[in-house]
Amino acid sequence: MSRSLPQPEEIQPEGTPPGGTPARKTRPRETRVREIPPPNPRETRSGPRGRTRPGRDLTVPPWGFVVPALVVYAAVVLYPAVAGVAYAFTDWSGIGDASFVGLANFRALLDDRRTLDSVVNTLLLTVAVVVVQNVVGLLLALGVDAGIRSRALLRVIFFAPAVVSPVMVAFLWKYVYNPENGAGLNGVLGAVGLGGLRQDWLGDPSLALWSVAAMVVWQYAGYSMVIFLAGLQGVPAELHEAARIDGAGTWQRFRYVTWPLLAPALTVNLMLSTIGGLKLFDQVYAATNGGPGTASETLSTALFKEAFVYGKFGYSTAVALVLALFVAAVSLVQLRFLRAREVTA
Amino acid sequence: MTPAPGRGRTAPRRTEPVPHPVRSPRRRARYGNYALELVMIAVAVAFLFPVYALLTLSLKEPRQIAGSPLGLPAPPTAHNFTHAWSSASLGPALVNSALITTLSLLLLVVLGSTAGYFLARRARGLGYGLYILFLLGIVLPFQLGMIPLYELVDSLGWLGTYQGMVLFYTGIQLPFTVFLYTGFARALPADYAQAALIDGCDHRQAFTRIVFPLLRPITGTVIILNAVFVWNDFFTPLLYLGGSDRETVPVRVFSFVGQYVSDYGLVFAGLVLAALPVLVVFLLLQRYVIKGFAGGLKG
Fold it and tell me: What are phi and psi of A90, to 5 degrees?
């Protein structure tokens, strides 16, 4: 991502005027070189300089190209987020005036059982989803990447749930978790002689959160699989061939050839599943609504309730701010660590 | 379903530059493949259990569901489907969803491609700052601005309208869209646009005639990823459209399920009907969808 970006050491003048200095004339041209930051123009031979005779870089589009997007983005995302941060320091209830209360919302948050539970649940849920979804996704990808005949069909099957609305998946899984006799997962367990494993999957407070996690993994394991598949396809066959000739076994070839080259796919997968896990709302709201009690409450469902059930708008935005800081911090740390270990084929 | 020979990765893998002198490990690997195939099919069967439940229950009468919840429907009945179609009023919801999704995609493609192209060409200074500003939107949870945005939409009188939803989706998905377009446009040679500009096109013409067609692969990805998101989103339409006659499919299904919660056959028929359009489109385009997902997310 940002790593391959040219650093903003030099602000590039917009539509350099025809009479600009020679040094400036060449600079915009450099930005046309693809992806990798261009060489320092001072170090390049005089070659490119001769070709920029027209005097200005024609290929830099005018600001009109970015302004409409920026306006919509600012109206829908930036302004509300900034205003939201301001609300987090008020006691606003949705009606009447808001008054500034400083850090009171954040102090209240530390004494609020529901919110604290939801923080813990969100973190547990995110870790569970990230780990299981990626392990399963990777195993599925390795499975369907091998030369098996049903691979094309299997890819479609495993990926299909990811295109269906999470709310609908949650309703479907409510049946899978149905505690009624003989129905759903319990029915299957009974039918195959594993009746001892039957549980009240969503009704048992110690299980509800993990049941939600399993449902999320079911829906998105295929998504991870597809991204890992894209990574696997970037592993050159010659490397495997060479390792095989050198006597490497299946595990060694995976460990020393495939796995290092999967790093970019892993980065994307971990970031997506982490952000998705931290923000999880639809599935919880539709399957358990945070219950029983607060057993499966997440930050997203808790702040929704604070806002629209209890009318505590200021407080709910403080919770949202905590969530935002979580997501930002975790993504930054992940990006740093994961990018550092990426290698190229 | 099998990729054509010479395409994808199967071809390079299968061509062996030097034939192995010892054949037996190869053959053993092939038996290993059969075992793997069996394992993967078993995994797929277990994975499909919820879908089996969905389809069989939607074809059963309540009495049958109570009697044999896991068995095949005998005889299958279409009654649930006709009933669900009329009582969930899915028809209007499908129209709403289709309209909102189409308009949002149109705006996202136009705004995202132009902005992405701009940010790719102007990757320094203020342009770089703007790029980072857009990236920030991927990380920000929308709940942070949920209440101020609700007020904004309300003050415009846009609650329960198409334009409110279209504006929302365009804004909320722009960061990701701009990110994809910028990444792709950076790898695009500038020479074509330059030639067009030298030939007398203005920037708008150079973009629509030369650059935008070159962006086609990533436009496909952008459309697929955003379509899945917009079509399936539940929370915002619940908030902005709930109770209006503009409700989208997930919202309709949500209230339908709430209404008939104990009648699994009917509820599941509703779910099948609601999921069918996405699934049909997915099955028709699955090759591009999977490629688009993977390619778009490779960054």
Answer: -125, 170
Q: Mind giving me the DSSP string for A51-119?
A: HTTTSS-TTS--GGGTHHHHHHHIIIIIHHHHHHHHHTTB---SSS---B-TTHHHHHHHH-HHHHHHH
- 8 A C-beta contact, residue A15 and residue A64: no
Q: What pTM did the predictor assign? A: 0.80
- Centroid of chain to Cα A241: 34
* Cβ atoms A319, A302 nearer than 8 A: yes
CA nearest to B197 within chain A: A58
> How far is it, in rounded angstroms, from Cα A71 to Cα A73?
5
User: A125 falls in which pLDDT band (50, 70, 90)?
Assistant: very high
Residue A334's Cβ-count burial label (10 Å; 0-12, 13-18, 19+) is middle
Distances (CA, A) of B232 to A165, B67, B237: 4, 34, 10
Task: Please tell me which of A43-47, A195-199, A232-236, B231-235 the model is most confident about, judged by mean pLDDT.
Answer: B231-235
What's the longest Cα–Cα distance across chain B?
A: 77
Q: How far is B222 from chain A (nearest CA, A)?
A: 15
Mutate to test the interface with B, among A65, A82, A194, A305 (most CBs of B within 10 A): A65
Smallest Cβ distance to B141: which of A188, A279, A313?
A279
- Nearest-by-Cβ selection for B290 from A188, A226, A300: A226
Report H helices in B140-263. 146-155, 162-186, 191-198, 203-206, 212-214, 216-232, 235-241, 249-259
pLDDT band of residue B27 (cuts 50, 70, 90) is low
- In angstroms, the CA A200 to CA B148 distance is 40
Q: Say how far apart CA B144 and CA A88 lie, in whole Å.
A: 9
- Using CA atoms, how far residue B175 sits from A285, B169, B278, in Å, is 26, 11, 24
Phi and psi at A100, nearest 5°, equal -70, 125
Lowest mean pLDDT among A162-166, B130-134, B287-291: B287-291
Length of chain B, in residues = 299
Out of B128, B171, B193, the one facing A75 most closely (by C-beta) is B171
Q: Which tokens belong to B67?
A: 């009697």
Q: Tell me, what's the ipTM?
A: 0.82
| Cβ pair A294, A117 in contact under 8 A | yes
**pLDDT tens-digit readout, A251-297:** 898 888 889 888 888 888 898 899 889 888 989 998 898 878 889 99
What are the φ and ψ backbone dihedral angles of A164, each rounded to 5 degrees? -95, 150
The CA distances from residue B94 to A10, A202, B97, B102, in Å, are 51, 31, 5, 12
User: What is the rounded distance in angstroms from the CA atom of residue B163 to the CA atom of residue A188?
Assistant: 47
